[in-house]
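Entry for the shared binder. Reason: the reviewer on the internal report wants the predicted structure included alongside the sequence.
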Amino acid sequence: SKEVLGHSVIGTDSNLEVLLDNFHQVHITVGQIKTPKIRINLFNRAKSYGAQFPLLVSPSTYLSPSAKIEEGTILMHLSIVNSSARIGKNCIINNKALIEHDSIIGSHCHISTGALVNGGVVIEDGCFVGSGAILHEGVKIGENSIIGAGQTVKTDITANTVIK
């Protein structure tokens, strides 16, 4: 049997329906760089088979009691989610990412390492925010957009935009 990082591989995506007969909780571990389609398809497929998606929170995360996080999202090490922030389903909030007060992150988004999402930012579904990117307070990022590593965004971005 195959192992990955010391863990036995018990199946693949092609075995998903059978695996869910025995294991009901699922977490999508595929990252997202160019497109969220693989994550979305796996999430929807597992959901159609009755999978449950727990919220995974690192012990080193700060999660405000007033924040709302939906199913299947992971908050990685040293991430911060401040007051009244909202994060949708199946998101990755990676190591040291900051989600400030009153921000709204849609579903199926990937906020990379060290990204700074300032207060009142709205990020629509399917977006990717690269490592070290800075989103100015109150900007809106349209769905399926990609903000490259280290970029600073000070104005609203329309859907399906790539900023490198």
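Summary line for the report: The two ends are 41 Å apart (CA to CA).
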